[in-house]
Amino acid sequence: MRSRGGTPAIAVIVIGAAAAIACSELKSAVVADDAGGGGDAQDGSTPSELEDGGTLSDDGSGPGGGFEAGPKGDSGVGPAAACRKIPLDCLDPAPANVIEVTTESTLQDAFANAKVGDTVQVRGKTLASGWQVPAYVTLRGCEGAAISGNIGFAGSGGTIEGFVVSGSIIANKSGSYVVRYNRFIAGTAPNEAGVSGRSIDSLVSASVTLVVDSNSFEGRPAGVEARTNYDTMTHAVDITVRNNAFAHVARPFVASESGLVGVINAKLEHNSFYDFDTAISFVGVDRKSTTSGNLFVRGTKGIEGSAYDVAYSLAWQVTTPAATPPVSGTFAIGAPALVDADAGDLRLGASSAAVDAIPNGSMVPAEDYLGCPRPAGAVGAAPKSDIGAFESQP
User: For position 39, what pLDDT does the model report?
Assistant: First the structure.
């Protein structure tokens, strides 16, 4: 199988009645130092009309590929059991707090009329650049809904979930934001991160809190970024990246802190990285970053840059796991026994050194990528947790 320099054919499959991820002919590119555009959450254009999700191809580059997970299999146990529906089901549009596009409203009207706590549900349509999610509203995609451009948030809170994303989701205003349960695929912008939390506008203070949880990133040059800039006012990003699966992503996570007042607090836990150049990069970050429970397989550099801790993380076939030595902690070395890594299936096999590798009582996320409980204790009675995004179930 060819890696980043070619056009690898990938199929990520969770067997049985559980979950399936499929993608093919994914292409990656070299990542530039500046992976984002300007400080705006859009490209300056007027929000485009919605298109049918089916206008994107069905070869893994748009809706039709991706997760097709159902509920647990008949046994409800084992690594094939998915506890969260993937892709997300459509919600019943009947309740007043669910506004469905386009059966009940246009997206423009839905955003104009949505209230705090509402969900704007996009069923099978594609969003291009220019849209901004209203404050404390959830934008939910289902039935192949996609984001093909750059979209962001209009207010001080919001959630985006359930989309196939070939563009970018940008959080650059003061507030708290969640990006979860999406599938990020290769797009047309060569250096663009799938998710960007940033405070880089010279005349605008911004203190951004961003959680990137349980997404897949496939064949992109860049996955998630945190960026600050400038010497006055407030420029801060507090970012948590957890339970994400990165396959054939050259630079899955980059934190770049510049400017006298820039502050980045980064926490990366229980992510799986497969086939990468540098999995985690901290550039000029003053505060110590936390990394825990991460799995690094087949890459050049695991973590490089500013001060960071390592806890309960495993590296395998990585040239330099710690390109910059950590402040504390070490990487475990052992075969992860991924179910089918060349096909992109990053679940852990029964013989994996990552299974039950985290002691009982350690702080771990309550769920894994598939929404299954963590810790589970696949071997024996002790509820130990696994390293990486996927938790083997007993």
Answer: 36
- Quote the distance between the C-alpha of residue 222 and its chain's center: 11
Distance linking the first and last C-alpha atoms of the chain: 32
- C-alpha 240/C-alpha 266 separation (Å) is 6
Segment 172-183 shows an average pLDDT of: 96
Phi and psi of 97, rounded to 5°?
-90, 5
CATH architecture for segment(s) 10-348: 3 Solenoid (2.160)
- What CA–CA distance (Å, rounded) separates 303 from 322? 5
Q: Global pTM? A: 0.83
Band (285; pLDDT cuts 50, 70, 90): very high
User: Once rounded to an integer, what is the mean pLDDT over residues 193-209?
Assistant: 84
The answer to whether 364 and 382 are in contact (CB under 8 A) is: no
Question: Which regions of 286-342 does DSSP assign to beta strands (E)?
Answer: 289-292, 295-305, 308-311, 313-322, 331-333, 338-340
pLDDT tens digits along 8-57: 332 332 322 233 333 222 222 222 223 333 334 433 345 655 766 443 33
Peptide bond into 102 cis (omega under 30): yes
The single residue listed with the structure tokens 């254009």 is 45
Give the span between the Cα atoms of 56 and 69, in whole angstroms: 21
CA 133 to chain centre: 18
Please state, in angstroms and rounded to a whole number, the distance separating the CA atoms of residues 296 and 314: 6
